[in-house]
Write a structure and sequence with these properties.
Number of strands: 4
Number of domains: 1
Strand order of the largest sheet: 2-1-3-4
Largest sheet: 4 strands, mixed
Strand content: 15-25%
Order of helices and strands: EHEHEEHH
Number of helices: 4
CATH class: Alpha Beta
Shape: globular
Structural class: alpha+beta
CATH topology: Glutaredoxin
């Protein structure tokens, strides 16, 4: 599995898109750090300040905010996910 120290996946429970994001990353061999904010209202506020989004999941590659599952899927399909992972390594 590729090193995912630079990939952070912010999730909550229950969250179908969070499960799909984890499955996609795992299927590509990308490890990641999962931060579950289901019971962390302060963490949620910090995430909104960081990403400008209130939805889950939120994915960061290095210092870049990728977005949610749809943005992850698009980046995977168009090849930019590989580029982002290489830059963040």
């Amino acid at each position: 599995m590729r090193n995912g120290r630079n990939v952070k996946l912010y999730t909550t429970d229950p969250c179908g898109f969070c499960r799909q994001a984890k499955a996609l990353l795992e299927s590509r061999g990308v490890s990641y750090d999962e931060i579950n904010l289901a019971k962390d209202s302060a963490g949620r506020a910090d995430l909104v300040a960081l990403t400008g989004q209130m939805t889950f999941p939120q994915i960061l590659v290095g210092e870049r905010v990728l977005g949610g599952f749809r943005e992850l899927l698009e980046a995977d399909r168009d090849g930019t996910l590989e580029d982002l992972l290489a830059l963040a390594a």
